[in-house]
Amino acid sequence: MAEGDKHLLIVDDENALREAIAERLADHGFVVEQADSGEQALQRLSEFAFDVIITDLRLPGIDGRQVMDAALQRYPEIVAIVITGFGTVKDAVEAIKQGASDFITKPFQFDALLHVLTSAFEQRRLKSENAYLRSQLEDRYRIDGLVGRSTVMRDLFHLLETVATTSSTVLITGETGTGKELAARAIHHNSPRRANRFVAINCSAIPETLLEAELFGHARGAFTGAVGNRQGRLEQAHKGTLFLDEVGTMSPALQAKMLRVLQEREFERVGDSHTIKIEVRVIAATHSDLAKMVAEGTFREDLYYRLNVIPIRVPPLRERRDDIPLLVRHFLQKLSEEAGRGAMTVSQDAMRRLMAYPWPGNVRQLENAIERALAFSHGRTQIDVPDLTPEIQSQSATIDSSELWFPLDGMDFEAYIGGVELTLIRRSLERTQGNKRQAAKLLNLKRTTLIEKLKRLEPRAAD
Ligand SMILES: Nc1ncnc2c1ncn2[C@@H]1O[C@H](COP(=O)(O)OP(=O)(O)OP(=O)(O)O)[C@@H](O)[C@H]1O
Ligand SMILES: [Mg+2]
Q1: Based on the domain organization, do 210 and 190 belong to the same domain?
Q2: Which of 29, 135, 200, 335 stands the most exposed, by the fewest C-beta atoms within 10 Å?
Q3: Residues 105 and 164 in one domain
């Protein structure tokens, strides 16, 4: 297997057997992680794109079938091997129908497992396309245009559906590119207002002098250039939904007018004294911290409370890495179709880097990265590491520096780095059930180096 390290997850609740296999697979160049339950396996799969998963079918709690399904759903490229008990060939056949590459029956010789693994890798290329067809995006992982399978996103979908049944004002917050506008549209399309209009206005994109007329409309001659009477966006959204994007950039005068709309449900067009009654649901969005702006006096407190009736936070992509494989597939399907190309896959190595990158521009940036990768992969059917930008390529080995803590009054550098080293070594040992050789491999260290470091950092733990 010359394509660089293969990452493998082995799942079995029989500790002695699992550890023995893990050890021998590590000797054969695999980077091995172990899970002693289905629950633990699902947790690891949500964070990391393994090349191979080997799972016993019979596990207490979440069983091997569910583990395998979860692995294949997220990563159609993964090689899945199931371990069955004697006399349960039926289960094995079933697993293969569900997409497993092969099976092996307990008890087995290690060489037999190695043989199964090697031929599975050889066959994988052939199966790619079928795997993609099988792994079509399921409805339960989407609401409107929003897709996501992480727990936070599924909770969010649920919240959006619930909120849709009401007419309450909603304030959506989140970093740029997280999907705030899509969330607002999802509320509208799931609400009884869906037959009426969803009208969006971006308060930061329109010059302040024009924003008022844009929002409230104007009477003929209200200002230079106001040739006729004109409806504003607010009126257009009557009985529907008004989406006030970047609401934090509204001027104080406009904030006062908007407050009146929310309180009295009435307003006047610019240059007109006739009062118009309106029935509209307002969804506002912002990437700024409105509470802080209130404290600083740049945003009206009363308007803030009127908007923040139902607060919805869309989390940044780096807090929901489990969405990345699904989003990648979603954009790949969409973009390759638009480009008139056939089904495309992503190598697990590329997927690992995509999942490790911190995505400051969130989902929008991910979409752009996939578009770029698609262009770079011209003539091939699989996206691989060189198709990604250098920053994303180099991610897998580095840590998320945005999570680094730097105290106000400085720090003891050596002690801090030592603490980081010790934490990483402990995590690695946890993951390999205390096996130092495998832990060292996960850290790309020599076993002796790991032991030396442990001795230095935590003298008692090295014994
Ligand atoms: N969960 C998602 N599923 C699919 N596409 C998404 C998702 N989230 C965001 N996108 C896509 O990412 C892009 C940005 O989404 P959107 O415009 O809703 O973000 P935003 O939070 O309003 O960003 P900004 O603050 O920059 O206006 C869009 O192209 C959108 O289709
Ligand atoms: Mg937006």
Answers
A1: yes
A2: 29
A3: no
235/105 same-domain check: no
- The pLDDT of residue 463 is above 90: no
Confidence band for 271, pLDDT divided at 50, 70 and 90: very high
Q: pLDDT tens across 181-222, in order? A: 999 999 999 999 999 999 999 999 999 889 999 999 998 887
Q: How far is the CA of 56 from the centre of ligand 2 (A)?
A: 45
Residue 72 lies in a domain: yes
How far, in Å, is the centroid of ligand 2 from the Cα of 231? 24
CA distance 181 to 190: 14
What's the confidence (pLDDT) of residue 142? 86
- Stretch (H or E) spanning 278: none
**Is residue 358 domain-resident?**
yes
Residues 308 and 221 in one domain: yes
78 alpha carbon – ligand 1 mean position (Å): 28
* Nearest ligand 1 atom, CA 148: 1
| Same domain, residue pair 430 and 446 | yes
One domain, residues 177 and 90:
no
Q: What are the phi and psi torsion angles at 90 (to 5°)?
A: -55, -45
Kindly report the protein residue whose alpha carbon is nearest to atom 29 of ligand 1: 364
Whether 1 is covered by a domain: the verdict is no
**Hey, CA dihedral for 187, 190, 193, 199, is it positive or negative?**
positive
Give the residue whose CA is nearest to atom 15 of ligand 1: 179
As for how many domains the chain has, the answer is 4
DSSP annotation of 109: -
- E strand or H helix at 70: helix 64-74
Query: Which protein residue has the closest C-alpha to ligand 1 atom 28?
Result: 364
Determine the atom of ligand 1 nearest the C-alpha atom of 330: 4
CB 192 within 8 A of CB 203: no
Q: How many CA atoms lie within 13 A of 12 on its CB side?
A: 20
* From 202, 364, 367, mutation site for ligand 1 pocket: most ligand atoms within 8 A of C-beta: 364
Index of the ligand 1 atom closest to the CA of residue 285 = 22
Q: Do 450 and 347 share a domain, yes or no?
A: no
Residues with C-beta less than 6 Å from any ligand 1 atom: 145-148, 174, 176-182, 287, 327, 330, 363-364, 367
CA of 406 to the centre of ligand 1 (A): 31
Q: Domain limits at 68? A: 6-134
- Do 200 and 127 share a structural domain? no
Entry pTM: 0.80
